[in-house]
Amino acid sequence: MSLTYTDIVTVVILFLLALRGASEGFWRSLIWPASITVSYLIFALSFATSRNLIMSGLAAVVASFLTKWLLGLVFKRPSDETPPPALLSRIGGIAIQLSWSTALALILITCLALAPLGQFGLGDINDDAQRSHAYGLIKPFIVLPKNKKKITPRNKDLQAMADDPAVQVLLEDERIRSLIEDKAFLEAAEKRDIQKILNDPRIQELQKDPTFLVKIMRIYATLNTAEPE
Question: What is the pTM assigned to this prediction?
Answer without folding.
Answer: 0.54
